[in-house]
Amino acid sequence: MGAPRPPEPERAAEVRRRFGEEARAERPDLAALCLLVGAAGDGALDEAGEDAAQIELDRLAGQVPFRPGGPRSWAHALAELLGGRHGFHGTPGDYRRLESSFLHEVLRRRRGLPILLSVVWMEVARRAGAPVYGVALPGHFVVGFGPPEDKVLADPFNSGRVLTGGDAELLVQGATGAALEPSMLEPAAPLDVVRRVLNNIRAWAAARPYRSDVSLWAVELSLLLPSHPAHLRHEHAQLLVRRGDFLRGAAELDAYAEVVSAVDEPAADRVRSQARAARAMLN
């Protein structure tokens, strides 16, 4: 069975509309945004399926022991429930599957990337009343419990194993070769989590040029986030051209050139040349 396929255009447009509204909300709902990412990539997920995933998160939260105690007790309680009793964890093979970035599939399979497993931990723990947040370590996402000065880290990819300071350092060194910096332990905002999820999906698709459909919807959702790097507009335009939508791609290239011209006119000229070449493909 191949990777999921995006929905039909009408459903895809509705998903993008809802994603944009949720991303601009005063308090964006992390689970809702992650489920909309899944709906953008998996045409089999409808609104009833989104609701079922939210209900499953509620059900799991109802199984957390009542107020386990301090941060370490919360971390152990979630590890016992999610990693132990329900078997949520990750393996190296999960990095090769697009479904590992879809919350509804992670809830079904009990497998996924570190960041999506962390979303499960965070959403279940939050519903149960835990002081929980995501921690975006370079190359490996984990969760934190408790106040910054007394935080306890857990690794959902490893069934929720509680980490020591040395463990976190090894994770960072293994991913980047650099030392652990205090700034790496700051709580990640919901939109930053979603941005990283979409970056993972774009990386998955970039390694599979035949799945430019995935690249396209992931970039289009990224552009709906309140802040995004300007180069994403160029990437979006190039994808449109690659997929044969030459007029839209050329228009996007011209718009990006206008942005770039304020700081780098030679680069803007190169982008305008790309726009002309895209239009020429129609002749």
Automatic annotation (TrEMBL):
Q: Where is the Protein SirB1 N-terminal domain?
A: 53-199
Signal peptide positions (record)? none
- The annotated regions of Basic and acidic residues compositional bias extend over 7-23
Renumbered residue ranges of the record's region Disordered: 1-23
Looking up Pfam families in the UniProt record yields: TPR_9, Transglut_core2
Per its UniProt entry, which superkingdom is the organism in? Bacteria
Which parts pass through the membrane? none
Q: In which family does this protein belong, per the annotation?
A: Belongs to the UPF0162 family.
Query: What is the protein name stated in its UniProt record?
Result: Tetratricopeptide repeat protein
